[in-house]
Amino acid sequence: MFIHKEIIVVFIFLAAITSFLLIRFFIDFKNFRDLLNSNPDNLEKKDFFFFLSFKPLVFSVTKILNEKNDVIQTKNRSIFFFQNFFKDFPDPLLIIDSNNNIVEINKEATILLGGENYVEKNVLLAFPIYGLNDLIKKVRSENQNHSSELRVTDEKDIIFNAWATVFKKQEQQLIFIRLYNITSEKKFQILQNEFVANASHELRTPISSIQGYCETLLGVGKDDSKIRNKFLRIIQKEIYRMKALVDDMLSLFKIERFEHEIPETNFDIKLLLDDLEQIFTSGKKKKLIKFTKPRISIIANGSYEEIRKVMTNLIENAILYGSSEKSIEVKYKSSERHHELQVKDFGQGIHSKDIPFLTNRFYRVSSTRNKNTNSTGLGLAIVKHILKRHNAQLKVESEVGKGSTFSVCMPNSVV
Hints:
By secondary structure, this protein is α+β, with helices and mostly antiparallel strands. The chain has helices at residues 5-38, 55-88, 107-112, 123-126, 132-142, 183-218, 225-257, 269-280, 304-321, 379-389; strands spanning 93-96, 102-105, 129-130, 146-152, 159-169, 172-181, 266-268, 289-292, 299-301, 328-334, 338-345, 393-399, 403-411.
């Protein structure tokens, strides 16, 4: 079959045009795709053969994608907040639904419940907390946040400051509850109130004495030099007693503030005992105390000044209350786990019923020991708190008529 020459030329021309358009299409498509992935904002600056008409559509699609991406990022941040902040929050947190069933619970709340999984269980059955039901009802009825002081009703004796708020999720009303443990704060407040009451009682006696003597000096005794000198000495003694009481109260308050901070310093037990021996065996006291010390330096963790205060207090108590013909013994003993400093006297001893109360503030043994008006009643309380800060213990062994042994047991470790 014969094909006309002009027709062949036309076909070749059409094929060339088609090939050019296809090549140009694929080149534009590739450039458009690369530019869209890298920087869509430069679409206006780039000349395309085929895709100029699609730029408005591309910008619209890009805008929609950006908006969706922002929504996804917001959701991801919410998920991150929930997984990291909610789950690892240091206070017990939980979310309950309209039926009071637990929807979400964090690690601390799970620990509070003994490690059991209480999700989808009733919060009032899971948490034996007095007043929780009333708080939930109040928040739900008033549709606003509230806080309340709640107490665990079992043997744990824990007090919480509970804060609750209501929010909606997919037409469901949920309540978020945070439990902040204020047990230590409450106990500290109680101790403060007791401390102020006891301090006021202890200060009232010397203040009343000073007031009475001053009134006498200003009245009938103002012209009597003997009465004046006698009463001024008594007033001076009462002032010293008040000063000692205030100093001990300030020391106790300072120690309680840092009671949970373990000292990061070390001290030499031999150097400490050398120092105490020099103080307590001078002059008339030399025959009263016998020291048994280590021959080499013994390094222990703790504050030199605070342990020195502890030992000074115990030795002074032995001198004041444990006087006898035998010398007081101050010894050092060691074991694999502990350093032990002992103060032993051979005096009147302490009745067993009084021993548990010796470290209470303002507690004085009157039945087995002579009453000492110079005592503030805070010495052994200060000792107790100092040793607690050092992770140490005070052991008391005593027998009426034979004497007492006070032992300071400190961990055998060095920071």
